[in-house]
Fold this sequence. Notes:
Blueprint: H1 4-12, H2 16-22, E1 24-28, H3 30-37, E2 43-48, E3 61-63, H4 66-72, E4 81-86, E5 99-102, H5 108-120, E6 125-129, H6 138-144, E7 152-156, H7 158-164, E8 169-178, E9 189-192, H8 201-204, E10 209-212, H9 226-239
Parallel strand pairs: 2-3, 5-6, 5-9, 6-7, 8-9, 8-10
Antiparallel strand pairs: 1-4, 2-4
Helix pairs in contact: 5-6, 5-9
Amino acid sequence: MVSKNQLKLIKSLHQKKYRNEHGLFFVEGLKAVKELLNSDISLFKVFSTNPISTEFNDIEHEEIEEVDLKKISALHRPNGVLGVFKTPKPKRIDFDDWVVVLDDIRDPGNMGTIIRLCDWFGIKNLVCSKENVDCYNPKVLQATMGSIARVNISYTNLEDFITMTPLPIYGTFMNGDSIYSAELPKAGILIIGNEGNGISPKIEELIEKRVTIPQFGSPSTESLNAATATAIVLGEIRSRG
């Protein structure tokens, strides 16, 4: 059975400070756990309310009571499986394809959805500002639906990264060339800005091409959120082959 020290450890992983200190993070749900088990992310341990499940015959797992799972879960209704994994080190970035760059995304739901979109559209590398929400935040991980296992995510100083990249720099704005008519190369950097403030002035100065998603409906409609804008732009990029 799970010990009090183990419960304390997992509970601490709700906070970024302790995720960094221990080099661990957790995901919940059978599907998400299996996605990571089938990746190159290293397992620490799986906890399950159904220890005799054949899903985990070949890996180290431990029984946990539902009452204890509720104490450590990030969900209102825990679904029986929680996996603790070792935080992977970022891999070398491949500049042969598009790279998505996030300039201070703060909403966990947006962040998780963008990771999932990168996975869907085959974007292997996602670069984030140091102020960006942590990709191992439990709410982010829930929104990724397991896609965290297939996207290389790194946090860095964006000015330094953009300055050294060999690729053309594109940024999303409310005004700019329509994404549907803009010239889109085989590979480039796509910068998505903060939900409320957009791309920061210091990063805007480095952008070579401003693109926008034209509005066809009522002018009073609110602007698109970061994840929705990312989906539309990546869809157009991939449609060009």
